[in-house]
Design goal:
The structure holds 2 protein chains of 2 kinds.
Chain A (H helix, E strand, L loop, with lengths): L14 H8 L5 H4 L3 E5 L3 H13 L2 E5 L17 E2 L11 H11 L6 H21 L24 E2 L5 H19 L2 E4 L2 E9 L2 E9 L5 E5 L2 E4 L20 H8 L4 E2 L4 E7 L22 E5 L16 E2 L1 H5 L9 H16 L8 E4 L1 H7 L1 H19 L8 E10 L2 E2 L12 E3 L17 H21 L13 H20 L5 H15 L6 H21 L11 H25 L23 H4 L1 E6 L8 E6 L14
Parallel strand pairs in A: 1-2, 1-9, 2-5, 9-17
Antiparallel strand pairs in A: 3-4, 6-7, 7-8, 10-16, 10-18, 11-15, 12-13, 12-14, 14-15, 18-19
Chain B lengths: L2 E7 L8 E7 L8 H14 L22 E2 L2 E2 L20 E6 L8 E3 L2 E2 L2 H8 L21 H11 L6 H5 L6 H13 L1 H4 L2 H14 L10 H5 L7 H16 L2
Helix pairs in contact in B: 2-7, 3-5, 5-7, 5-9, 7-9
Chain lengths: 638, 248
């Protein structure tokens, strides 16, 4: 298969301009004849649905939550990056491009990364116009803070609720179009399959989660903005409903999955405290602006943190990475924490955490200032743990967070299935092997507001004579029958283990063998274990109720059945990449100091996997990466 | 610890519901309230019963999807806390806990503890936005907004749309929810252009959804997970009256 990324001609600075100049347009009279299906209503989904409706297309938007405003973009805390250089500290689009490409360990496309940095300027303008209350200085101008992996302050924020505020901006834009009748909204609907007619994406099969009824929806293009699948680890920072099912079912219909094993393990989440636990809450990376990370210098330390004197503490990030210190990128910070924890220096009842200490910042800046910056995070910490982080250090630990991998898309955000687009975290595009903090809100937003409106129109221009897509086409019958058969199959198993048992077991396998560190033997073993677990699932899972009423367990079972396949592909992906890059750390490929060893000679490519059937190994395709502007260098934060 | 639960079970919108007793033992006090319900459901599934349906998603207090009446209090005994951030350490050993759905004419029960809060979406779509299309925005620094105004706007914008204000109000009023959005937008220069139209349409939609009127008990502010102030309601009333007097 030839993977053509369709990068436009011209210098890096001209590529996106050149695309927009030559992209095909659809005239306003034709737009109302074209229907677009948008699955997911987070930042990417809401923004593309609103933008397309504003232009005059017929849009249907779907989400599994009970309101679009609940999509998991809402939970992003720290901020959104933009190269506005309002701080006059040397920032520029080019600098942001360099930081992002380097942060991703040179495993992303130059052209995509540059475009994201370029569009970041417009996003801040757009959000402010919508009424997003970004933090401001006393003079009335926007404030910025710094995030991991960069040396400038380019992160815009709304206290610790930036994702919520940006999402509400997009949600309100969407609801404005819903009110006008330009978008039809289907909340509590879950996509269960993609429908292809003559090789093109032409519709979806969804299940109404309140009634159990299956519905078919047809359109000229289908946009998946369904977020990430980090919840595959069970314990993660994601919402309980986050899943990979929409992209996985599209994958089985022909869309390639790129770099599925690149999943970011976030360094600052709350540690696990027991088996009953259902999620690990994230503490925003922004805390690392003022918090210092440390563990005791001695193993078996029993004193309370405040009783341990300065000279018996190991500020290991400041020690190992003096140039970036506590703001080293996420992959590096997480691995450094794991290194200390594994070596026996972990703290807390399960010895699985490290300290994040604000004593110095409170002493220097005063408690009121820290409260203003992070008040809601400290409150959240107190609610969950019962401890006061103004008085003693927080306990934090790494946790699965963001999937850099996702559906392979070209420069136009179209997958290998014509007419099927993937936006935001659902695609693999811009972050390479490691995402920088505050770039996820950015990518989701620019995909939806500024990129897809051009590229989707470019595709739809070929459909102005197609006419309405018929949802009675045999392809819809076939897809719906397959969905029904699958639901019947799951319900018929009637075994003796719950869906959560399988999800937790899978998560444990993946944390152990396809998490922060991987090796060949572990990954091979994990593939065998996952296959056994999947077999057991289809023999022994127990799902109560039926498919014709509300049934949360049935929903979960569908998602976990997909996870059991995605997990296997993640292991194949990690196994095939004999190098360490970003979040992918293969123990066999490290320096004497324990730093990642990339292999540009052999692995300077994107792995795009093709589904070959349930019982066959996946097929690898490669998209070679070329670097014309920024030559790959060893990523050092020392 | 041990808990005696009395949980509202109702098959669907039309069916009659009732409280059903469950006893859970050996619970860890650091478990969250929803994890306690997970534990119960795990047991119900394995013994062939139907698990309890409840709304939840992010489990970190921001998505606004969870919410139930716990001993008659929206989101339970802690102030400014969603159900997902409530932990068993807030209860005593062997305590009896009543768990019911949010109750309001405008929030029909779907099943067990799940309710339909789409009325909130319709209130927002009636006017809870700035009418700006993608691509129309001027530079973000074109209009300075003072620190204080931004902070006030944020305080109102922080609403998570959970519906605790409605559930706790004896009149099932959505005044806190609606006024929070009206104030978030009217405080900012970007939102001022449409202030008149917006407040009228949103208040009319709120009434059309059959939410009750506000009678100033201020119970909503007490239960609001984000601590949204009832002053927003006063300001909404001002905005509404201002709009009516200026309407041609």
């Amino acid at each position: 298969m030839n993977l053509d990324a369709k990068i436009p001609e011209g210098s890096l600075e001209q590529k996106w301009e050149n695309f927009k100049k030559t992209a095909k347009l659809v005239n306003p009279a034709n737009r109302k004849k074209l229907e677009v299906i948008v699955v997911g209503t987070g930042l990417a989904g809401s923004s593309i649905a609103a933008s397309l409706a504003e232009m005059g297309y017929q849009v249907k938007a779907f989400c599994f939550q009970d309101s679009p405003r609940r999509a998991h973009s809402v939970a992003a805390q720290g901020g959104v990056n933009a190269a506005k250089n309002y701080k006059n500290d040397g920032d520029s689009v080019y600098r942001m491009f360099v930081d992002t490409l380097k942060g991703g360990d040179f495993r992303a496309r130059e052209a995509n990364v540059y475009r994201m940095a370029e569009c970041s300027l417009n996003l801040i303008d757009q959000a402010v116009a919508q009424g997003v209350p970004f933090s401001r200085e006393y003079g009335g101008y926007l404030n910025n803070r710094s995030f991991g992996g960069v040396q400038v302050s380019r992160t815009f924020y709304a206290r610790g609720q930036t994702g919520q505020q940006l999402l509400l901006g997009a949600y309100q834009a969407l609801m404005r179009q819903v009110g006008k009748g330009a978008v039809k909204l289907y909340s509590r609907h879950e996509m269960l399959d993609l429908v292809l007619v003559d090789g093109k994406a032409r519709g979806i099969i969804v299940r109404n989660l309140d009634t159990g009824v299956l519905e078919r929806h047809a359109g000229h293009a289908v946009i998946l903005a369904t977020g990430g699948y980090g919840k595959i680890y069970y314990l993660s920072t994601l919402a309980m409903g986050c899943n990979g099912s929409a992209i996985w079912r599209a994958h089985k219909k022909g869309a390639l999955m790129a770099s599925p094993s690149w999943i970011q393990i976030h360094p600052t989440s709350l540690p696990q405290s027991g088996d009953y636990q259902s999620k690990l809450t994230l503490m925003s990376e922004s805390l690392r602006n003022d918090g210092r990370i440390w563990v005791p210098l001695n193993t078996g330390e029993t004193r309370k943190p405040n009783d341990i004197p300065e000279n018996e503490r190991d500020y290991y990030l400041e020690r190992r990475y003096p140039a970036f210190g506590n703001l080293a990128p996420r992959d590096i910070s997480s691995r450094a924490a794991k290194e200390r924890i594994d070596a026996g220096f972990g703290i807390g009842p399960l010895k699985n955490a490290v300290y994040l200490d604000f004593a110095k910042a409170i002493k220097e800046q005063g408690r009121a200032k820290i409260e203003e910056k992070y008040g809601n995070l400290f409150d959240m910490y107190r609610k969950i743990t019962g401890f006061d982080a103004y008085e003693e250090p927080m306990m934090i630990s790494p946790s699965a967070h963001f999937s850099m991998g996702g559906l392979w898309v070209d420069y136009e955000l179209m997958t290998t299935v014509p007419g099927l687009f993937a936006l935001g975290e659902a695609n693999f595009a811009d972050h390479g092997a490691n995402r920088l903090g505050a770039n996820s809100l950015l990518q989701a937003s620019v995909d939806g507001y500024f990129i897809a409106p051009y590229t989707v129109a470019n595709y739809l221009s070929g459909d102005i004579h197609t006419g309405k897509i018929d949802d009675q086409h045999p392809a819809f019958d076939k897809a719906q029958e397959a969905v029904e058969a699958n639901l019947r199959k799951l319900l018929a198993i009637a075994g003796n283990k719950t869906v959560d048992y399988y999800h937790k077991t899978l998560g444990k396998i993946l944390y152990d063998y396809c998490g922060l560190a991987r090796n060949e033997a572990g990954l091979k073993g994990a593939i065998v274990e996952i296959r056994k677990l999947r077999e057991d699932f289809y023999k022994n899972v127990k799902i109560p109720g039926d498919s014709i009423t509300m049934n949360s367990e049935l929903e979960k079972a569908g998602r976990v059945s997909d996870y059991l396949e995605i997990g296997e592909l993640m292991c194949f992906d990690a196994l095939s990449r004999n190098e360490s890059c970003g979040a992918h750390f293969r123990e066999e490929y490290q320096t004497a100091e324990g730093e990642a060893m990339r292999n540009d000679a052999e692995f300077q490519f994107i792995s795009a996997w093709e589904w070959a059937g349930a019982d066959a190994d996946p097929v690898l395709h490669k998209e070679e990466l070329t670097f014309e502007v920024l030559k790959p260098i060893v990523r050092s934060y020392k | 610890m041990k808990l005696n639960l009395k949980i509202w079970r109702q098959k669907d919108r039309e069916s009659q519901g009732k409280l059903v007793d469950y006893v859970l033992e050996d619970l860890n006090p650091h478990m969250s309230f929803l994890e306690m319900l997970d534990t119960l459901n795990e047991r119900l599934i394995l013994t062939g019963d139907e698990p309890v349906e409840f709304d939840h998603d992010c489990r970190e207090g921001i998505c606004g999807q969870c919410g139930m009446m716990i001993n008659g209090i929206a989101h339970g005994p802690l102030q400014n806390t969603t159900t997902c951030q409530l932990h068993l350490r807030s209860f005593t050993d062997n305590e009896t806990i009543f768990i019911e759905p949010f109750r309001s004419q405008a929030f029909p029960i779907k099943r067990d503890l799940r309710v339909d809060r789409s009325a909130f979406d319709r209130i927002i779509s009636s006017g809870g936005f700035v009418s700006t299309n993608t691509g129309q925005a001027p530079d973000a620094h074109a209009l300075p907004v003072s620190h204080q105004v931004t902070e006030e706007a944020f305080d109102a914008a922080a609403c998570i749309g959970c519906g605790a204000c409605v559930a706790t109000c004896k009149n099932s009023s959505a005044a806190l929810f609606t006024s929070a959005k009206i104030n978030h937008l009217v405080l900012l220069p970007q939102g001022k252009e449409e202030r008149q139209e917006r407040v009228i349409r949103m208040v009319e939609q709120m009434d059309a959804e059959e939410f009750g009127h506000c009678s100033n008990t201020e119970a909503c502010e007490v239960e609001c997970p984000q601590g949204i102030s009832v002053l927003n309601i006063a300001r909404m009333n001002y905005e509404y009256n201002r709009a009516l007097t200026r309407r041609k």
